[in-house]
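Two proteins follow. First one:
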Amino acid sequence: MRLTETVLNGIFRNNPIFRLVLGLCPTLAVTTSVENAIGMGLAATFVLVCSNALVSALRKAIPQSVRIPCYITIIATFVTAVDLLMQAYLPALSESLGIFIPLIVVNCIILGRAEAFAGKNGVVASIADGAGTGAGFTLALMLVAAAREFAGAGTLTLWGDIAAKGLNPSPAALAILPAGGFIVLGLLLALVNKMSDAAAARRGGAPALPRELDCRHCAVCATGGCA
């Protein structure tokens, strides 16, 4: 698989949120503003790229019987690094994201890419996969956050003076509440699925389903562990 295709798969065909429906906890929690979404997305991308690279480099040295604990240890190392860096240089953003930065350790997207891709492919391809998946995650977060912030607060906020206010004169506060997060995400998922089906119909084929890193194809299901 070409590196460009690997990156584009992570952004579009296997988008973590809109195609695989993974990482919904931070998606619903931090997307009350575009600023938070970008911060979370970039932090997750850093961890994805670094952990994928190290897992791939060590894949032949890690025993299969302990690979998951090893992967988690590697991921936790990079999560700790990004958490400390954010506390030192972006304290306001770190405080806003709160516990969801440390919780990247248990984000199924990160561990899933280590298990499904980095543990089976070379370092360069694994870096491309991490970058593509991270970009797809970040773009999806930004789209959800933009919809929620615009509808719920009438603004689109970025760092410092980069802010657009008064865009929506009649905001509905529900959009930035937890219930509104579910509603907005559900509507966006329906829209993405509709667009995917329409694109497949124009090509004369069936809608393409993601084939990796979802519940149907995880390591547990593959071994018959799911009921």
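Second one, unrelated to the first:
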Amino acid sequence: MPGPLGKDLLGLAPLSADQIRLVLDTAVPFREISERAIKKVPTLRGATIVNLFFEASTRTRISFEFAEKRLSADTVNVASAGSSVSKGETLVDTARNLEAMKIDMVVIRHGASGAAQFLAERIESNVINAGDGTNEHPTQGLLDLLTLRNHLGDLTGRRICIVGDVLHSRVARSNIWGLTKLGAEVAVCGPRSLLPNAIGEMGVTVFDRIEEAIEWADAFNVLRLQLERMQAGYIPSLREYNRVYGVTRARLEKAPRDILILHPGPMNRGVEIDSDVADGPHSVILDQVTNGVAVRMAVLYLLAGGKPELADAAKKGGA
């Protein structure tokens, strides 16, 4: 029987505001597990979870592994380079073979938008999207929301600006869906060449100048400039990008209020963000990493049918 999130977590666009708040609220007691001596509860003992990564990933894969192991699940990691996929096996064949081994969940990262949904429609196991193409990265969006809520409180009316390469960013899309559902005002800022043509249809404000965004925002979510895509001529040069759109201390010192700084990582220091900002007093980048494990524990727990009201009991090892 599907849990309160349904069978799968494919994106934040399909979720209601109440479902998003449910994940964030459930993550709070799970975060405390990471802060104690024995970082483990028996909540998912006996469950088998496969991490199926068709794209290189360190942060997301390790964060999911920590979440799975802290819930006592058995985990299997499959990378495309060392699997039958590199020999021509299709995504569905791979998943069906894994499912024949009686697995319970699949965490998938794939370079094609819609891959997670494609898989979810063809297997009975729960599917969690760990990033698909330029579509969504829902658990990153959720951990960003949790981090913002922890520092800003209720997000209704709060002004959050997403800065940088929005065009290629699945993180940006998950953030926009999640933030708008929770009542925040959302803006984007970056070169027009790195903004989707239809960005205005997502209900966001567009700033062409970083100075205008700094005047407006309560928080910045600074996106990685995807260097591997920049050869296509989206920007004149990395130095020019930093000069015009870089989030620097000199710029932030002119802000009318303290601006919270988030970054999904990995960072290009000196390009989209300067080191003294990334490591500065208003940066919550390491909080994002800690919240990532808690959010993923919450998602795994809820998809497995866990009751939100029992999350505290799970934290104490009683569920």
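SUMMARY FIELD: The two ends are 18 Å apart (CA to CA). The chain has a mean pLDDT of 92.
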